[in-house]
Write a structure and sequence with these properties.
single chain, Rossmann fold, 10 strands, globular, transferase, TrpB-like_PALP
Length: 300
């Protein structure tokens, strides 16, 4: 009998769901975290990255050896660089130059080519440049912001996993919103199982700079976003998100990034409003991607 060993692509998904032990304090609620940093390239974006490439291949839109282009603030770029390496594609990633050194290094480690735009141009400028390069015939833009294969990865993967892991008892789902792929796909699945599950999205307050999530100008709002799939949007301050991020590491042993700290901060707020709830928040990546910023050096 020949043993069938998995490939690295087979290791995307099926991440752990763990319970917070100290941060919630005395409560009748159960607060759970989905550890997406356990994916092979280290973030929740491994799921849509592999989905977008695999499904585009199946439709005959791309073929191994082609050049792919994507605008990214970090995690999607790392995930796409990994997926491109697995599948045999050239990858060009366009990102703001204020992204962390760890993220840039991870992308090039997987063989991707980086093009940097200024902080002032931001993700909007990166997206515009990607579209111009595609128009010039320099490659194919996957466009995580408009590509239905992004939320589909969470509809077929993340959502069912959460439902199974909570045995259908989940009452609240909390997720930061960047491309909005995670919250769109998970919301669709969970609402099909139980329309009463509350879907809570997180966006930064005006002036806050939380990597990976945005308050999009209307003209740049992701096309995959459907407002009716989100029951409540929480505005999160940078200081609160960073404080909870550090507390997660020091009090729970959960090492993550700022947007994940914000998601947990939002969940802690919600927990003070309800009883006997089962809440799940997405921990979208690992904290080692942010060490060079000094963000973990600040005292609590």
């Amino acid at each position: 009998m020949t043993l069938q060993y998995p490939t690295i692509a087979d290791c995307v998904g099926n991440t752990p769901l763990v319970r917070l032990q100290r941060l919630p304090g005395v409560t009748s609620n159960t607060l759970l975290l989905k550890l997406e940093g356990n994916n092979p390239a280290g973030s929740v974006k491994d799921r849509p990255a592999l989905s977008m490439i695999t499904r585009a291949e199946l439709r005959g839109q791309i073929h191994p050896g082609d050049t792919l282009i994507e605008a990214t603030s970090g995690n999607t770029g790392i995930a796409l660089a990994m997926a491109a390496a697995i599948k045999g594609y050239k990858m060009i990633l366009i990102m703001p130059d204020n992204s962390t050194a760890e993220r840039k290094a991870a992308m090039t480690a997987y063989g991707a080519e980086l093009i940097l735009v200024t902080r002032e141009e931001g993700m909007e400028g990166a997206r515009d440049l990607a579209e111009r390069m595609q128009a010039e015939g320099r490659g194919k833009v996957l466009d995580q912001f408009a590509n239905i294969d992004n939320p589909e990865a969470h509809y077929t993967g993340t959502g069912p996993e959460i439902w199974r892991q909570t045995q259908g008892t989940i009452t609240h789902f909390v997720s930061s919103m960047g491309t909005t792929g995670t919250i769109m796909g998970v919301s669709r699945y969970l609402k099909e199982q139980n329309p009463d599950v509350q879907i809570v999205g997180l966006q930064p307050m005006e002036g806050a700079s939380i990597p990976g999530i945005r308050r999009w100008p209307h003209e740049y709002l992701p096309k995959i976003f459907q407002a009716e799939r989100v029951d409540r949007i929480v505005d999160m301050g940078q200081e609160e998100a960073e404080d909870v991020m550090r507390r997660l590491a020091r009090e729970e042993g959960i090492f993550c990034g700022v947007s994940s700290g914000g998601a947990v901060a939002a969940m802690l707020r919600l927990s003070r409003e309800v009883e006997n709830a089962v809440m799940v928040a997405i921990i979208c990546d690992r904290g080692d991607r942010y060490l060079s910023t000094g963000i973990y050096d600040a005292p609590n």
